[in-house]
Write the structure tokens for this entry.
Amino acid sequence: MSLYTRLEQRLERNSDDAGPVAGEFSLLRIGMIWLAANLVVTTLLTGTLFVPGVDYGLAILLIVVGTLIGAVVLVTVGNIGTRTGLPTMALTRGPFGTRGSLLPVSANVVILMGWSWVQAMLAGIALDFLVASVTGVSMPVVWAVVCQTIVVILAILGHEGIARIEPWLAALMLAIMAVIFVTAFTTFTPAEYAAIPVDESIGYTPILVLDVVIATAISWTVLSADFNRFARSSKAGIIGSGVGYSLSTIISMALGATAISYVILSGGEAIPFDPVTIVEPFGWPFAIVIFVSVMATNTMVVYGMVTSVVNAIPGARVKFLPTALILGLVSIIGATFFGLLNQFTTFLVLIGALFAPVFAIMIADYYLVKRGAYTPDILQPRGGRYWYLAGVNWAAIASWAVGAVGVYLWTYVWPTPIGATIPGFAVTFVLYLLLSLRERAAHPAEPSRHLSRVPLGTGSGAGTGA
């Protein structure tokens, strides 16, 4: 038996699948998972985009408000995972249909691929800073490729180990963040931060800041049910993910806004979304933390991308290893496209346009149309309640299209006083509900046919996000 065959068999035995599980994780464990997940440099660097485009104090307020709004969507979708035991993309079969769910699954793979590219670039830049400070040789693209190659290997062979040490990495990140906050506010006073002149030419408005913060929560919601299906109760999942996500996001983004403000007050060149800009004032330990945190988080991103494809259709025999190798190669090649870093805001808007409507449909479908329960039909490759019309629920597809176009128009053509993500979510929610009233009336609740969760390890891997 070849090494490839032995590795493939091992991965098939241990990889996560889309079957229901009965979670065992406590509130504290779920909270730590979410705290660790979002203490990552992409969230931190997102905060560097806001100042001096908007006032420092207003930026902090918008970070808090946007995070709390986004967290409502995140925990609501995550609770469906807790109650059904299913991961997020498997749950899309409920409203979109067995085949229709391939659309949001495909969008999810595209978004995760984009995240993997961005994070590989940032890890490469941080590693390049360390190497160049010693050797004088700068090769950020080469280091980005090296970093992403390591990530792909870890995603195939060591994602469970990475998941176990993420809380310890989070503790290290929090310690470094505390030092940076102390340095920032003992060097300059809060009044000096508040007095930084606003530069409107940057193009950031309070509404755009709010949308970007909410879009960050939307981007993490694609993994909310994946993590929260391992919670032992809805209370553990809701409170744990809500508190963990909110704390990590507010701390990380606020630190980014503070760090870029520190650079401005120090007379440096404030280049947004550039790790070197904020690493230079605080030294090499910050670069190491950036590199390690990105590598850990990106390993789980790549692993999640692969499992989304492998489990896209119930009963389909898509192999983990060849899928991982193909997607891994694409992620390595894409890590060389450094121009994407200049389009990060556009990338976040794309996430909001694609997935805010998806989650509006999922929430409306599960809690209102399906009356808070899915039946075992959701696990069937054909037929059953979720087959709709040849496997596609066109009401969900139409609602998604309207919502996505609305988010785009309200972002770039007709800006609203409350941004684009909130009205896009609301319009999609109401439209899908109206289009599904007949289905709701035709299918009363069937307690005896509710989908049941099974113990961890019974037909499903227990490694995701643990």
Remarks:
- Confidence is low (pLDDT under 50) at residues 456-466.
- The two ends are 32 Å apart (CA to CA).
- Residues 26-351 form a domain with the Hydantoin permease fold (CATH 1.10.4160.10).
- Residues 153 and 299 are 9 Å apart (CA to CA).
